[in-house]
Amino acid sequence: MHHLLTCLLLTALLAGCAGQAPRPTLYQEFGERPGIEALVEELLVRVLEDPRINAGFAEVDLVNLNDRLVEQICVEVGGPCTYTGRTMAESHASLAVTEADFNALVEDLVDAMEARGIPRRAQNRLLRRLAPMHRDIVSP
Ligand code: HEM
User: Fold this and answer.
1) Is residue 3 part of a domain?
2) Is 103 domain-assigned?
3) CA dist 36 → 11, 17, 103, 110 (Å)
4) Does ligand 1 lie within 6 Å of residue 44's CB atom?
5) Ligand 1 within 6 A of 101 CB?
């Protein structure tokens, strides 16, 4: 009985009273909504300056793209957002996106996340969530 009490006390101390900050959520690691908005801005600047892929964005409604990307990344990192855009299959079907295009955009995203100081582990968690979209985005 004494052991049980001691154990409960110690556990309470270690968990609560020791003042350890809880591990941030993925959404927090991305800086919540303002951090995601800043990240998407960094991403779009890079994409529009990237000669490998920028031609495909010349005629695009960039305000819409910006807003849909913010929603989508917010959802993927577990934030309290709703994605209101088209599906990845619908929005990329007619674009003839290649494997190389996809890799270029992922590189630009990683550069943008680095520039925002997002921890590597958090970066990888987002990339893992975007990876399955590859099959809907890259043309067969
Ligand atoms: C993980 C990779 C990608 C994600 C998560 C993604 C996400 C999105 C989203 C959310 C939209 C907006 C859809 C809407 O307006 O309803 C979009 C549109 C678009 N994406 Fe992607 N995309 C990816 C890869 C690519 C790649 C590799 C390219 C080409 C290099 C590309 C080119 C475009 C273009 C041109 C549009 C605008 C289409 C339009 O407005 O008609 N995307 N993408």
Assistant:
1) no
2) yes
3) 36, 33, 21, 13
4) no
5) yes
